[in-house]
Design a protein that fits this description.
Shape: globular
Order of helices and strands: EHEHEHEHEHEHHEHHEH
Distance between the termini: 19 Å
CATH class: Alpha Beta
Oligomer: single chain
Largest sheet: 6 strands, parallel
Low-confidence stretches: 291-318
Number of domains: 1
CATH superfamily: Divalent-metal-dependent TIM barrel enzymes
CATH architecture: Alpha-Beta Barrel
Helix content: 25-40%
Strand order of the largest sheet: 1-8-7-6-5-4
CATH topology: TIM Barrel
Strand content: 5-15%
Number of helices: 10
Structural class: alpha/beta
Length: about 325
């Protein structure tokens, strides 16, 4: 099992300085989410090959590996122009991932929830073009349902992934999306089983609480989706329940700290989250789940770095 940091709150840190900053926070792994100087949201990648190689060298020097690269592109529309552009952007993003020495990419279904059949048709067309590229390059893909995508619920997302029926495509569960996925973390995790390879770890408030009046948006009845990515313990997600379910399926994938919105506390927050995740792993998983390994780096592949466990008493929450 590997614990990674999504450095979204460090997005203004120059790319080549990022490995040292992440290492200083105690992490040995990064999940590279969209950033303007690398692969922006919905746009063609901005990074060139020389910078990718320099970044790979900095990662090695810092003893930090990259678990995955996460593009978010409009491969499910809403229009054919956007879809075709997204496929071109995806192909370049895959090239970057390979150059970086990383074997996994994460993403969202995207597409519009008010037109799910059209979005699904576009998604399948994109997959028909891209799956051969993933398979040829040896790059795996972990997909997650996301609020305001054409698939938002966990169980239907798993059905879709099973329908893709490719050994290189797996499922990503996002804890802060729990209340938009169907509020059934144990059931979705159990249903996923070995298809679950990646978990985004953060907390969120239950937007349905107080008879739907926790968050008031106007006009009444609008379809706005509201959620947060907070530190564990600050919201309503039952992390103990989720980690118990992960232990129940023998999860041995990637856990990524995904806290957003507190840029002024980016480093302190990341350090607190690393400790909280370690404690949850120590509480719910048997000894040895986080084994010793040599220092990580861009050439480390899927080797697992050392994260000493700090088991908690059963009645102690992280």
């Amino acid at each position: 099992m590997r614990i990674a940091l999504d450095p979204q709150m460090l997005r203004t840190t120059p790319l080549l300085e990022l490995p040292d900053v992440v290492a200083g926070m105690g992490y040995e792994w990064i999940e590279l989410s969209p950033r303007e100087d690398f692969i922006p949201f919905f746009k063609h990648p901005r990074v060139d090959t020389a910078t990718v190689r320099a970044f790979r060298s900095r990662l090695a020097d810092a003893g930090v590996g990259v678990t995955s690269v996460l593009p978010v592109l409009r491969w499910s529309g809403p229009g054919e122009v956007e879809r075709q552009a997204a496929v071109r952007y995806w192909k370049r993003a895959i090239e970057i991932c390979v150059e970086l020495g990383v074997d996994t990419m994460n993403s969202e279904f995207n597409g519009r929830p008010e037109a799910p059949e059209l979005a699904e048709a576009m998604f399948w067309r994109s997959m028909e073009e891209l799956l051969p590229v993933f398979e040829r390059e040896g790059v795996k893909l972990a997909l997650e349902p996301h609020p305001d995508d054409f698939i938002e619920l966990g169980h239907p997302a798993l059905d879709m992934i099973r329908g893709i029926d490719s050994p290189c495509v797996s499922f990503l569960y996002c804890l802060p999306h729990t209340f938009h996925q169907g509020d059934d973390a144990p059931g979705i995790i159990a249903n996923a089983g070995e298809l679950l390879t990646h978990v985004h770890v953060a907390d969120s408030m239950d937007h349905r609480a107080s008879d739907g009046l926790r968050y008031i948006t106007n006009p009444p009845g609008n379809t706005t989706r509201v959620h947060q990515h907070m530190e564990l313990g600050r919201g309503d997600v039952d992390a103990d329940e989720a980690f118990a379910a992960l232990a129940g399926i023998g999860f041995d994938g990637v856990l990524t700290t995904c806290v957003f919105g507190w840029d002024d506390q980016a480093r302190e927050s990341g350090t607190r989250m690393l400790d909280a995740i370690r404690r949850l792993v120590g509480k719910h998983f048997p000894a040895g789940t986080l084994p010793d390994a040599d220092a990580a780096g861009p050439d480390a592949g899927t080797s697992r770095p050392n994260f000493p466990q700090t088991p908690l008493p059963d009645d102690t929450a992280p």
